[in-house]
Amino acid sequence: MYRAPVEEIAFTLRHVAGLAGALESGRLGELTDDLVDAILTEAGRFATEEIAPLAEVGDRQGARLANGEVTMPDGWPALYRAWAEGGWNALTAPPEFGGQGLPHMLHVAALEMWNGGSMAFAIGPTLTIGAVEALAAHGSAELKAKYLPKMVSGEWMGSMNLTEPHAGSDLGALKTRAERRGDGTYRLFGQKIFITYGEHDFTGNIVHLVLARLPDAPAGTRGISLFLVPKFLVGEDGAPGRRNDVHCHSIEHKLGIHASPTCTMIYGDGRFGDEPGAVGWLVGEENRGLACMFTMMNNARLAVGMQGVAIAEAATQKALAYARERTQGRAPGRTGEGMSAIVEHPDVARMLLTMKALTQGARAIAYACAHAVDMAHTTEGEESRHWAERASLITPVAKSFTTDVGVEVASLGLQVHGGMGYIEETGAARLYRDARIAPIYEGTNGIQAIDLVTRKLPLSDGRQIGSLIAELRAVAAEAGTDPALGETGPRLEAAVADLEAATAWLAAALAEGRQAGALAGATPYQRLLGLVLTGCYLAKGALAEAGDGRRDERRALCRFFAENLLSEAAALRDRVVSGAASLDAARVVLG
Amino acid sequence: MYRAPVEEIAFTLRHVAGLAGALESGRLGELTDDLVDAILTEAGRFATEEIAPLAEVGDRQGARLANGEVTMPDGWPALYRAWAEGGWNALTAPPEFGGQGLPHMLHVAALEMWNGGSMAFAIGPTLTIGAVEALAAHGSAELKAKYLPKMVSGEWMGSMNLTEPHAGSDLGALKTRAERRGDGTYRLFGQKIFITYGEHDFTGNIVHLVLARLPDAPAGTRGISLFLVPKFLVGEDGAPGRRNDVHCHSIEHKLGIHASPTCTMIYGDGRFGDEPGAVGWLVGEENRGLACMFTMMNNARLAVGMQGVAIAEAATQKALAYARERTQGRAPGRTGEGMSAIVEHPDVARMLLTMKALTQGARAIAYACAHAVDMAHTTEGEESRHWAERASLITPVAKSFTTDVGVEVASLGLQVHGGMGYIEETGAARLYRDARIAPIYEGTNGIQAIDLVTRKLPLSDGRQIGSLIAELRAVAAEAGTDPALGETGPRLEAAVADLEAATAWLAAALAEGRQAGALAGATPYQRLLGLVLTGCYLAKGALAEAGDGRRDERRALCRFFAENLLSEAAALRDRVVSGAASLDAARVVLG
Q1: Tens of pLDDT along A37-95?
Q2: With an 8 Å Cβ cutoff, are A560 and B254 in contact?
Q3: Which of A147, A270, A526, B313 pairs as cysteine with A449 (C-beta 3.0–4.6 A)?
Q4: Residue B307, phi-psi category: left (phi > 0), alpha (psi -120 to 50), beta (remainder)
Q5: How far is CA B111 from the centre of its chain?
Q6: What are A157's strand-pairing partners?
Q7: Cross-chain CB nearest to B254 (options A423, A444, A587)
Q8: Which of B389, B408, B442, B500 is catalytic?
């Protein structure tokens, strides 16, 4: 059973991601070390004791639809209420609406743990928090006053309605229609698919944020507006009243996260109300809906990244426990009687160490990204701009590398279990199934790579990625001074050089208009950046004096990563700088 | 829907794996090119038209157990009968028992296609064919006369009973007990788990081959005997009579291959018959059971390898079809109206080309392995010994690289589908689930790597791997002469050098007693060999003049592989030669 890795998380936040410095600087207000520990401990306790025990029943029963209503698995509505009553939904929300306004670093740490307990559970609240952010940033005072307090308290949940059958990665193609009424309201008509937690029995109302197009809107992404469409219209008294003309038509039968209802939502077909049309209110300005969504998209991407970290952690814990217990054969050097625990076999140890290193690297990347978000919010001027850029730069990697790691580690974890891994009751298969959505939703990892290469590398004319590379090179140099880290220093320096070479190649390709070439290298580049960040963050952790008696372990894991896994960096650089021509030529194979 | 790739298979058999030469040499008896084409076409037709349409219902319904009896999915018993009546079970079986004695190359080609139609279906017959092999090689004349004709015709199926709860990879630990009776029969008592097709309603009898231990047997693997235990005892008239004391206690709820019943079998608990004990007959000699199993284990491993190839092919077909149809965004260079098919986006093209190249490489490795098996059977003396060694050397790679590729390609295929890939109805998720067992069963891929490094590399004092490397180097040199292959020649030469260096390092480690170091490098080495074989076989195909108008495509795919994917070889070599020390040191992390 999953146990929230509170100590490892606290260590990573403080000594790798930058929380210690941020606390010292006084930027995080009244937040103290003790409070950080208290929050992490309690979030971890909730994940371990409340969420994790309900993960299996959630997977088995799934969310069930009947007559347009979704019934959640046994025990889940109570779980949600306990979670909301714990104040967790309010962690980062604005204090004026009941939130605690805590740093994003704590939020993602808590997210990691809740997702570790059950990804299908944590994704729901995650979306509500995203809806709160969008509304807080762009909603009118009236909308905020009416909806935010109840969304922050968790009394109501939110949902994000973007995708349509022909508009997924390309939102410009969406067709849902919004008509103006004279009274400041709109009527929405259309169909949305893949709407996570679009319908459920957790809360008495659901606040849908919906992208739609006005009749006179320009084509493409510049003609998209954002609307708030509640499931139940809210009266003057603030209580849910009559049903709005929106309903859940069907839910998807998915590979994993079975308890997360993935809904097809129908707006305005006349099922409810006197005349067809779902009543909606504009959020932000007309035709500026995509900009409103972008506000929260970075955070949503990081939140999905936490799912990758969480699944990787859960899979590693499970596999390690099994490998310590299960005995088969005799490992080299074994002298005693009987069989060895399989953890003693070098090949199994390789799998487990790979899992450990990738999980920790993914975690550090995600937390470093959250740190940059917090720094951008708590600094000003040039400094704030730098940190906002840094967050922007790392976000695609914090979404993609982490979620790829989630799949990779879950697959290794299943393998460690041998035949038992393939049996659903063991639980390793659930992690493998759940993990697989994260590289897809909230922008596929391929879309992240395009974003990274075409929009993030050019930030400040390349100086942002340049400053990151300089920092990484400094870590590599420092790693070279610690003999306990073996070849880590030189290996990291070589990998940073690979990253720099690949970056330069992509910059030149973009500058010279070789768009296809740059895009061909985007995914290998993204992985390369993730690997180099992993190596440097493992080294940063290994170099830190935390006084917790685990430094030798961190050094050993860092060295393992540097001397075993980092060699992939050169291959990735090669793919970026030499791969595009043959990729282009080989399109003939694809007909 | 899956379409058996008959032409690609025929090309690979002839021009890459060596079928053309074997046919020319006259070694394959009366087999002609026309007959090969006819068999492949008809096996492909059966896979495409009969098996594939039932894959989805098989996955959805699964095998169902009630009262010890397994009911197969709707339409599946008729499918099996049609398959057996088509004579497919008899393809490679000995002619004296009704078989056609055809080369193994044709068998694995047919296996690929049947598994492409449905892996859950093809695994059943595969095991029967394995049981036929074991019985033909080691059974007494009486046993063979009684059972083989009906097993070869497919009237009865077989099953292989090896694993027990504490004896998986380590069969020496098995506890199932066999007691001698004075009449030449034995009585078996014990429990077997993970028994594929241990119970079903395809056939009127099931012939279980069971590993068990005699009371006076030595401990470990030298005390294991093999027994034939029919579900129904067979009378003098050859008809199934009374029920033997063996039954299916439960079936597993698995991640995938739902229609393949994975049974816990109970032997001798007294449920059937007058006194407890399942009646069995010895196959081969007492205490030599493992040797009997090894006879067929290589072929069974290759058969599982075909599952990897098959799933990879099916996933590639499905993803490519989707990518040609689905439109999103605008690919670089697009000038027309509207959105581009996603296949035009470089990142999607990279995924699909990677899938294509790995699938074709895995196929070629498996067929080359089958070719070696056929050569060993049809040559004599030193030549036969060479080919038997070659088959032995390649088998672990033909099982592991192929099945890892199956998982990797199925995962990429799911990703190409975006959100639709995560929906079960699309079918990409089924391939991802089905694929995941193949790296585990029939010896985990880690066990294959141990076998490769500790037992196969030392064959003929290293001269067998040496001769393979020399052949690969020659292909690399030839590739260097074709300008259409771009950098393929030098890239392959470098990769072959990496393989040679890793081989030498492992040989030295074994010679110097550094067993743990050699085992630490086993899995990366296995992947390295698979990658280099893939590159060389793609080149061999690209250099061949098949006159089918597809040479340019083969050249382009080969070049893509060499210039994009082969760069992993250096990283793998590095892991083998530099990774062991840090892996060993990092065991402290695993507690």
Answers
A1: 999 999 999 999 999 999 999 999 999 999 999 999 999 999 999 999 999 999 988 89
A2: no
A3: A526
A4: alpha
A5: 9
A6: A206
A7: A423
A8: B442
